[in-house]
Amino acid sequence: MSATLETGGPLGATYRCSDNGWINQDLFVDWLEHFSKYAKPSSDDPVLLVCDNHGSHVSLAMYDFCKEHHIHVVSLPHHTSHKTQPLDVSFFGPLKNAFYRECDLHLKVTAHEKIKMFELASLFNKAYVRVATMEKAVAGLRSTGIFPLDVDRFTADDFAPAEEYRTIRTECELENGIQTKIAETPVTTTSEVGGPITSTSATPEIQYRISQHLRVPKYKVH
């Protein structure tokens, strides 16, 4: 990759490219190396990394690297990142808008001359330094119920579309002579800092994940 594509980009960033422009498993492992360098996880102080279910995040190389470098990975449930991924909730939207504004301003200043590839990093950096704040990071973690942990962050209304899909699917299965049973028993767990926590608003899958991760050691938040 040409070094000119990094011109004016964020300090300390790592730059990579792929054939189709999308992240892949190899690039994600490269990013993990970059992440580990700054997070500095150890056996005494592991790091919890929350990821969505993109295919690039799941590979044997990724598993081996995380195991060796004391990175514990939690994968969010499918099709929930708009509610459960902190970056989606509080950061990516403002970042995109800020980047579009920088591009519009650049076009006005240059009399609508086409933006060149080696100018993108600089334009992105101007947007990034204005939007990437600690307040947005904290807001994202709080809004998704990840930190501080809030097992009742989502209500039944948040899961209404999924319930509708499940109802339709069940009806189709019954029509085909297949009967399914869905457990709806609330999950009760005990946190490290309080008494029993019972969650009835989340789906069984999310309840199970919450119950498991209440038992893990405390992690650094990045």
Automatic annotation (TrEMBL):
InterPro entries registered for this protein in UniProt: CenT-Element_Derived, DDE_SF_endonuclease_dom, RNaseH_sf
Residue intervals of the DDE-1 domain: 10-117
Pfam family, one: DDE_1
Gene Ontology cellular component list: nucleus
Taxonomic superkingdom: Eukaryota
GO-annotated molecular function: DNA binding
PANTHER family, per database record: POGO TRANSPOSABLE ELEMENT WITH KRAB DOMAIN, TRANSPOSON
The protein's name: DDE-1 domain-containing protein
Organism: Aromia moschata
Lineage: Eukaryota, Metazoa, Ecdysozoa, Arthropoda, Hexapoda
